[in-house]
Amino acid sequence: MAEGRLTLDRKKFQAMEFLVRQQAARTYLEECLDISTGTTPLSSVLSDGTLLCKLMRKIDPSYISTFVESPKHGAQKRDNVQLFNEAAKKHLQMEPYLIIPSDVVEEVFPVKLVDLILVLAKKIGDISPNSISVKLDMPRARQDLMVTPENLSEAEAMLEKEPCVPMEQLGFNHSELYSENVEEASSDNSEKDVMKRHTTEEEKIKKTETDEKDSKTSEERNKKLNYIVLLLIITFLLIMFN
Questions:
Q1: What's the pLDDT at 79?
Q2: pLDDT, averaged across the chain
Q3: Are 55 and 29 in contact (CB under 8 A)?
Q4: What is the 3-state secondary structure (H, E, C) of the chain?
Q5: Cα–Cα distance, 204 to 198 (Å, whole number)
Q6: Of 139-153, 170-184, 220-234, which range is least confident?
Q7: CB–CB of 75/69 below 8 Å?
Q8: What is the pLDDT of residue 49?
Q9: Burial of 219 (0-12, 13-18, 19+ CB in 10 A)
């Protein structure tokens, strides 16, 4: 039982960490390109390749001279993604992290696509730090993230199909992931803190559900009592008139 609970907690922790990645990637993309993506999944936002090309041109316009800004069909979208891939491979040495165009267009690997933006941001910072003033800020994403039962469940479902690659394998170090102003606990303790916060949220939700259930039960009980009282009154009146 304890082992099953540990596995469950680990899955929730990994889902929350993915939400942090997604938040950081979204914020970076929005601030670099001065856009708002709302709550649209990043895989959908990036699926036609236009924002990927714009981001690459932001580094250096010569990296991608031209692309289709309003692609009408799949072939144009795939061409856009291919232009991005070629530029990222040539100028940022990102070949291991690239996704084939058809998979981007069809949104096959949403988790890998988030990692692609994170790696791109890091590569830009390492190779061409002056090209884009915006910096990837994982600690800020960790602080700004709003976790709900719904987006946590969605993240868990996504990770069931496509597990996350550890951030260290993407080239990130500890100082890039956590705030320098706060002394970080070990990863085990960090995980416990995350799960403690999530457990508190779960308890709040369960309490609300229990309160609603109790209220409904009380309402049904009152209806039954009223019905019994009504029957007694009718029975009394029938006896009186007979």
A1: 96
A2: 81
A3: yes
A4: CHHHHHHHHHHHHHHHHHHHHHHHHHHHHHHHHCCCCCCCCHHHHCCCCHHHHHHHHHHCHHHCCCCCCCCCCHHHHHHHHHHHHHHHHHHHCCHHHCCCHHHHHCCCCHHHHHHHHHHHHHHHHHHCCCCCCCCCCHHHHHHHCCCCHHHHHHHHHHHHHCCCCCHHHHCCCHHHHCCCCCCCCCHHHHHHHHHHHHHHHHHHHHHHHHHHHHHHHHHHHHHHHHHHHHHHHHHHHHHHHC
A5: 10
A6: 170-184
A7: no
A8: 95
A9: exposed
Percent of the chain with pLDDT over 90: 34
pLDDT surpassing 80 at residue 129: no
- How confident is the model over 72-82, as pLDDT tens digits? 999 999 999 99
Please state, in angstroms and rounded to a whole number, the distance separating the CA atoms of residues 42 and 117: 10
Q: Which of 139, 142, 135, 134 is nearest to 179 (CA)?
A: 139
Tokens 């960490």 belong to which residue? Answer: 17
Cα three-residue angle 141-147-152, rounded to 5 degrees: 115
List the one residue out of 79, 76, 83 whose CA is nearest residue 55: 83
Q: Roughly how many angstroms between the first and final C-alpha of the chain, as a whole number? A: 66
Q: Name the residue type at position 136.
A: L
Q: How confident is the model at residue 179 (pLDDT cuts 50, 70, 90)?
A: low
What predicted TM-score, i.e. pTM, was given to this entire model? 0.69
Q: Give the position of tokens 């049904």.
A: 220
Task: Tell me the Ramachandran region of residue 69: left when phi exceeds 0, alpha when psi lies from -120 to 50, beta otherwise.
Answer: alpha
